[in-house]
Amino acid sequence: MRRIFLFFALFYMSLNAYVYNDSLLLIYAKIIPRIMLLDHTKSDNSAIKKLCILYENGDRLVAKRLKELITRHLPKEKTKFSIRIVAKPYKESEKCDNVSAIVMLDAEKEKIHKVVEFAKKNRILTFSYNKSLLREGAAISLSIGKEIYPIINLSALKSYSLKLDPLLFQIAKIYSEGNIK
Fold first, then answer.
1. Where are the domains of the chain?
2. CATH class, range 18-180
3. CB neighbours (10 Å) of residue 3?
């Protein structure tokens, strides 16, 4: 009886678990700050950009790891750019006000929709680890295969009223109506 219970428990957990790849986290950690430099939405000319990483309770260590990787791999070019990173559970997403960008780790659709609406209202750039969240309204994700390139959700950018540098559009693929072009 215990074995059957254990089997069902493991099966249920595997259905709800999302696996994060450390190599992919490293790629995101290197690219997200550089894309943030191309965001010209807020004209306060602040040298400090703020990034909020949202996670489910089970992904706290993943968020912590991503935060460490971003901090370690910040651009070292001669820019007046520094970044302040906070990691919050989705239930505290409203505490991510006054940030430049939000990274959304995998979560239930209702939580994603809440964050997307919050980001639209506050004109905050959103990144998603899982590119399927583009369908839910995330602004940017990455396609990682033989080539790595950003995927921009054009309708999300318009609804967020974001202004991104044209250079980003030259290297990115566009997500529109469920298709990547």
1. 18-180
2. alpha beta
3. 7
